[in-house]
Hints:
four-stranded parallel sheet; Rossmann fold; globular; 4 helices; 16% strand
Amino acid sequence: MRDDLFIRGDVPMTKSEVRAVALSKLELSEESVLFDIGAGTGSVAVEAALMARRGHVYAIEKKAGAQELILKNREKFGAETLTLVRGSAPEALKTLPVPTHAFIGGGTAQLEEILEILFEKIHGCGW
């Protein structure tokens, strides 16, 4: 999807070229469950939700301004399988279901902890 289709404001957004490659590499199916960590405007989450129509996408975002943009973009594109999770990773991940996929667009300061929680959810143990 073109960048100019998204409601953006002053919030960082994963650009269309990066989204295209990332979503291609993720190989999402209709049943995928994706965590978009540090979702920003929700551009990755929206496109993923449109692919995973029988799955679910969790857009994890701590900034209030970005959270509102995610909700606006979800509504604009009719991305019904997208849920906004208000909070910071890794804490916000703990109560979510097991993902099949993850995209880390933000939260790199706690990358090791985020990866540990993802591994634990997927494999049932820490690394």
